[in-house]
Amino acid sequence: MTHPWSRPPQFPYQQTPQVFLFSRPATKHLDLDTATTLAWRLRGIALLLLVHRQSPAVKTPDEYNAAYRLPEKSLEMKYMTLHNLDEVLELFTIHEKSGEEEVEDEEEDEGLEDDDSDFGTLDDDIVVSVYKNRGSFLDMDSITQPTSDNIHTTLAQSNLTVALFYLKWDAVSMAFLSSFIEVAERLTDSEVDNVQMIAVDCGEWTDLCAGQAGGSLPVLFQPITAFPSVLVLRPQESAQHYKGMLGSEPLHRFIMLSFPASPALLSTQEEVTSFLQEVPHPELAGYMPSRVLGLFNTQTHAGVPVFTEAAKSLRGEVLTGVLTDGLAEKWAIEHTVDLPAVLAFPPWRTHSHPSKLPAFSSAEELLTHINTALIHPMPELTVENLPSFLSLGKALLLLFVGEEEDEIGRRQNQALVEEMRRVVELGEGRMERYVACWIHLGHTPAGMSVLGSYLGTMPPLPALVLTHLPSGGEIYQYPPNTPIVTPFVLQWLQRIEDGTESTAGILGEDSWPSAVEFYDFLKVMDTQERSSPQQQAPDLEEEDVDMEEENLENDLLVEDAADSSNASPADDTLTDHSEL
What we know:
Mean pLDDT: 79
InterPro entries: Thioredoxin-like_sf, TXNDC16, TXNDC16_3rd
Radius of gyration: 32 Å
Low-confidence stretches: 111-122, 510-516, 535-543, 547-580
Protein name: TXNDC16 third thioredoxin-like domain-containing protein
Helix content: 25-40%
Organism: Scophthalmus maximus (Turbot)
């Protein structure tokens, strides 16, 4: 028989500090009370274990009544004589502070970033999230938490409600909940009072998240099946899904762009100028949103309702406006279009040269035209805009360029981007199946790991790659020693289409295997229920407890604070206690 600490902690406690208290048979009840009290105070900080001294495997000297070990030194035990419980709490407080100071010293002396090595070795993202946020609680005062009974009343209190649906046990949900609260507090600080922020825990209010709340009352939205999800709710309108990045800045920008009327009816040239050149709120200063104008002969034109439906779908993403009558005719003449017409003003175009959209017969068709017109012919790919490009379902033609060391390098990179833009222009119709874009590895360092994962190694820069083909997961690399010029790139794409170009790699499956073997808790619970009766006589329970105590492996009893939640924590005073 070996010491319980002679082997590393088992999953999922590899990165959790452990505290051992040693108990004697004569004082086991007092020891248990003390362990319970300490376990309560160590919740979220350390794991507490109560060890029986009568075991022959326990050879701890009598002068010590406690021990502990830290995750970075999982096999190194430190013994101590514990006089009061505050000593343990002070121990871990000092350890955490010293760890922070060491990290700061390393950053100052060596300029190294903290790589969170402890967190990187945890088994899954949920454990990482729990470990990082242990002992911390989110302040929910800035948001409303409705129930199934009052959800309709809550939504009626505001013309604009932003609702987050999350699960407490989902790491991404809890991380985004923090960002959601940050946005709510920011809106409050900037005195934006015409929006209501609510959050619903779908683990608790399952009927609400299933769209069944309110009994006979109308259904507010379709069942929530993905977490976290954000909906924008307005009275008498269908719910709008937020499709942006799960971060505080993108969500805040989306909310601020949701306030203006969609579409806004512009009746003077001054209003049009303000619409095209100004932002709707000071909080958006410095941001250049995309804009779309609809030009119609009259407000009763048949195309106005179609444009309005499309405009409502674009709220939070694009500013939309409508011109009618004489003002619309004036704009149509200036931009050589026939009424009705739709003009798109992406941020990378000047206001004097908008994109003229083709004719449309439905809101869906118009949305397709708008989204296509707002795409930059050679956009810079970033972490934030990647989802919008992937949602197009087209192959990505990616140009990777490195960080420039001087002005010459900047000009070379710019020349490469311009050359790829010519590829798009000269390729005409055949390039519609691709989204040509570029990644600046200085602006987006994550692109280096992406490029390395595509090809298995880091190629020389610049590198041109074709990936995310709808037909499969093939990855093609433009020949590294061939100059990136329009004729050669078009010939390379033609060889790929003809099937004569060899692949450079294959995209991996969208699966992330667990670091540990899957443990089916429900199956174990079902097995236990079938093998033992629901209720046992008191005398049988006592016999089972006695047998378990005699056969405990290593005579180790793990006292979990959660199991003692019904017991009142004992007083910290340890008088008349022989061990502790």
